[in-house]
Amino acid sequence: MRVVLTTVLSAKVRVNERLIASIGRGFLLLVGFTDGDDKETVEKMADKILSLRVFPDEHQLINLSLDDVKGSILSVSQFTLYADTKKGRRPSFVNALRPGEAEPLYDYFNELLEMKYGNIQTGIFGADMKVESINDGPFTLLLDSKELFF
Predict the structure, then answer these.
(1) What is the pLDDT of residues 1-48, one digit of tens each?
(2) Segment (H or E) for 55
(3) Which domains does the chain have, with CATH numbers?
(4) CA–CA distance, 19 with 116 (Å, rounded to integer)
(5) Strand, helix or coil at 114?
(6) Catalytic site residues?
(7) Residue 84 C-beta-side C-alpha neighbours within 13 Å
(8) What are the two backbone dihedrals, phi and then psi, of residue 83, each rounded to the nearest 5 degrees?
(9) Can you tell me the distance from the alpha carbon of 133 to that of 131, in angstroms, rounded to the nearest whole number?
(10) CA distances from 80 to 53, 111, 116 (A)
(11) Is 44 helix (H, G, I), strand (E, B) or coil?
């Protein structure tokens, strides 16, 4: 599982020119899955994300969590996080988990975030989404589940 986490001042998702999700300050999460990902992987990733201290405090030190700043979460499925660009000029997506297996994990991930934190909006799995964000910092992290399991 990979998640690109960006701190944002605001973020929105549109599908067919219709606004389906919108948040203020918080996390924009781009979420992708690969073979071997399971509920345990999702649980560890959700816990990691919610425990991160990535917002500046009054001294501009990176000390505050999402909860500390009362932020929101916008979670967007993103199978292209597993693109393989080693050969040729066209990415291969063979490492991305098939939609039938990835969608339940994505739903479970969002359910966990809702249960443990609340204040989450989501994109639509598999839809052609237009994502807008005003990045804060910018401050962007790439979280890979391989690093959560030592």
Answers:
(1) 999 999 999 999 999 999 999 999 999 999 999 999 999 999 999 999
(2) strand 53-56
(3) 2-147 (3.50.80.10)
(4) 26
(5) helix
(6) 78-80
(7) 8
(8) -65, 140
(9) 7
(10) 27, 22, 27
(11) helix
